[in-house]
């Protein structure tokens, strides 16, 4: 037969290898097989309308992923063999990786679990296949990130127990609770939260300018895993947009539900990205762009185009977008100022920017840096140089929803903290913003269960009653070695040794010495 | 309001051909060079044609090969055997 050797086109291949491998159940009811598909109120009338624009099938998936992995691991080998860590701009940079490994990589693993779970819960074959591929991607990201950073773990402190720390350290409850919130939601909310709001609208801000920054700071391993992961991300983002369009096209009753989820998950994602803002503005010695500039390109411009496109479905831009846009000139400074003060309880070092970095911040934030932040930072810098490095020993009030300390300021007055509180069934709850307070009001039963690190410490659930015990015994941080001030730390010393071209001790010698 | 679509590639050998092909088919697009990456943006629509890529590369090229070098995209995707299109409606 002539037809036998004809290569299938993309559309036919996709049809054969995804939709045509599904079947209609005969001896079990669909609602029994997919019990979670109904309860959120989303109405799907025709799953066959689901579009996967990349039309990726398993055979092509393995082929391209294998090629990505080969490239990636060749670079990891080269990086390790050539002592790539010695070629980064400055060892302060490694602290961004410590934050990444304990704050972001576990989210990749959480995403893997999330997609594996929801991929089981949709009765549409297209959605199931897309979720399955993404689950494998996310597992790959978690693994490649750990492999990339394991090289740094041989040479710098604080990278030794990221998975344990992710579940315990106070500020890591911010990313952890974000994903736990999504994973404990229904399958459609999970996709709106992660595929759309996070992947499509916000992850560019993490993976594109920050990874470009890693390249600019000589970190070949990180930029390579970052961009390798991001090549999957382009597919995830496309899925995220298609998911939203599909749900909105299925039934008009879906519109208000999706709008509420977009409002919620935009705000949660925006709060989460405060961490990335400070990584870009304060933790990259060579700067690519400021957080405000990244926000303008990747949210205001790209997000603006996106929400204009979604207008025809009756979707408006997320509520409190104006607050988020105004905050772009503040969040990184407020977050870094907080981490600086609480560095006795972080798994990485902090420091005050050097003079030329302060100048850069003044240039990039002409309206805010000198006016609101410079004086405080210069004061802290002076105190540190005179031997009085400032640490704040009062545990902060956390927001019940995003779990970030109440450190952000009012949109119209950067000298006033934004703080909201409400009473629910006799208990008082605190919030960092109207955005988080609204999320609570929509689902108080969910958020009253939040595991808030500060409350837990005070209740005696974190191993002890003083900072040293909690930090060392419960968090597994080596106090004063892995964290606190960068200047004078063992990492700093080691970096000076590397750059001073002194003969280095090998790792085995170092261990014997210790 | 301006509505830009964009695509970002790793700044590597493959991407040079992709950028060349994209610029041939989308002369209005703007190319931005950033550390380790190349970002191309265009108003409303950007197309990558297999035919142009094959001519630029001098070999057969599968549209899905692009998946190896792409970093990020913005816009609705329409892909088939002959092209990859990004657009806003």
From TrEMBL, chain A:
It holds the Pfam family Phenol_Hydrox. Gene3D superfamilies: Ribonucleotide Reductase, subunit A (1.10.620.20). SUPFAM superfamilies: Ferritin-like (SSF47240). Keywords: Monooxygenase, Oxidoreductase. GO terms for molecular function: monooxygenase activity. Residues 418-451 form the YHS domain. InterPro entries: Ferritin-like_SF (IPR009078), Phenol_Hydrox (IPR003430), RNR-like (IPR012348), YHS_dom (IPR007029). This is Aromatic/alkene/methane monooxygenase hydroxylase/oxygenase subunit alpha. It comes from Marinobacter salexigens.
From TrEMBL, chain B:
InterPro entries: MOase_MmoB_DmpM, mOase_MmoB_DmpM_sf. Pfam families: MmoB_DmpM. Belongs to the TmoD/XamoD family. This is MmoB/DmpM family protein. It comes from Marinobacter salexigens. The lineage of its organism: Bacteria, Pseudomonadati, Pseudomonadota, Gammaproteobacteria, Pseudomonadales.
């Amino acid at each position: 037969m002539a037809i036998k050797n004809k290569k299938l086109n993309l559309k036919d291949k996709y049809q054969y290898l995804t939709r045509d491998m599904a079947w209609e159940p005969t001896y079990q009811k669909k609602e029994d097989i997919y019990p979670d598909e109904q309860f959120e109120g989303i109405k799907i009338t025709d799953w066959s309308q689901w579009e996967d624009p990349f039309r990726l099938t398993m055979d092509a998936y393995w082929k391209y992923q294998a090629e990505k992995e080969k490239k990636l691991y060749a670079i990891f080998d080269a990086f390790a063999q050539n002592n790539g860590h010695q070629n980064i701009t400055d060892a302060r940079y490694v602290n961004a990786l410590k934050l990444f490994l304990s704050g972001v990589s576990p989210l990749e693993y959480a995403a893997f679990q999330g997609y594996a779970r929801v991929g089981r819960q949709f009765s549409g074959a297209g959605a199931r296949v897309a979720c399955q591929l993404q689950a494998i991607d996310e597992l790959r990201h978690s693994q490649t990130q750990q492999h990339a950073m394991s090289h740094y773990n041989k040479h710098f402190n604080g990278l030794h127990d990221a998975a344990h720390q992710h579940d315990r350290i106070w500020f890591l409850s911010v990313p952890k609770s974000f994903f736990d919130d999504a994973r404990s939601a229904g399958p459609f909310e999970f996709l709106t939260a992660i595929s759309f709001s996070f992947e499509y609208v916000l992850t560019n801000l993490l993976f594109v300018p920050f990874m470009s920054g890693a390249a600019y700071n000589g970190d070949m391993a990180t930029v390579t895993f970052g961009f390798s992961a991001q090549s999957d991300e382009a597919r995830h983002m496309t899925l995220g947009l298609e998911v939203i369009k599909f749900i909105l096209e299925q039934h008009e009753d879906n519109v208000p539900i999706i709008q509420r989820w977009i409002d919620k998950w935009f705000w949660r994602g925006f709060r989460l990205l405060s961490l990335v803002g400070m990584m870009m503005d304060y933790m990259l010695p060579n700067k690519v762009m400021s957080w405000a500039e990244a926000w303008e390109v990747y949210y205001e411009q790209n997000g603006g185009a996106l929400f204009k496109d979604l207008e025809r479905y009756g979707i408006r831009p997320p509520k409190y977008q104006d607050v988020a846009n105004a905050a772009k000139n503040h969040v990184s400074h407020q977050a870094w100022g907080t981490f600086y003060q609480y560095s006795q309880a972080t798994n990485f070092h902090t420091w005050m920017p050097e003079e030329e970095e302060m100048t850069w911040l003044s240039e990039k934030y002409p309206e805010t840096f000198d006016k609101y932040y410079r004086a405080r930072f210069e004061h802290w810098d002076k105190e540190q140089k005179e031997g009085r490095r400032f640490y704040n020993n009062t545990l902060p009030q956390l927001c019940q929803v995003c779990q970030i300390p109440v450190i952000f300021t009012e949109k119209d007055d950067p000298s006033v903290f934004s703080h909201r509180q409400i009473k629910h069934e006799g208990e008082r709850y605190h919030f960092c913003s109207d955005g988080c307070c609204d999320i609570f009001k929509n689902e108080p039963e969910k958020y009253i269960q939040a595991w808030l690190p500060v409350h837990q410490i005070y209740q005696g659930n974190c191993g002890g009653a003083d900072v040293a015990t909690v930090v060392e015994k419960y968090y597994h941080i080596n106090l004063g070695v892995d964290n606190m001030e960068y200047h004078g730390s063992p990492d700093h010393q080691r970096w000076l040794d590397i750059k001073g071209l002194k003969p280095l001790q090998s790792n085995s010698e170092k261990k014997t010495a210790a | 309001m301006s509505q830009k679509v964009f695509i970002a590639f790793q700044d590597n050998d493959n991407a040079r051909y992709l950028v060349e092909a994209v610029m041939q088919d989308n002369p209005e697009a703007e190319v931005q060079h950033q550390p380790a990456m190349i970002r191309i943006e265009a108003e409303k629509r950007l197309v990558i044609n297999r035919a142009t890529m094959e001519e630029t590369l001098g070999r057969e090229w599968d549209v899905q090969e692009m998946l190896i070098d792409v970093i990020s995209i913005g816009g609705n995707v329409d892909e088939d055997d002959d092209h990859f299109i990004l657009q806003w409606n």
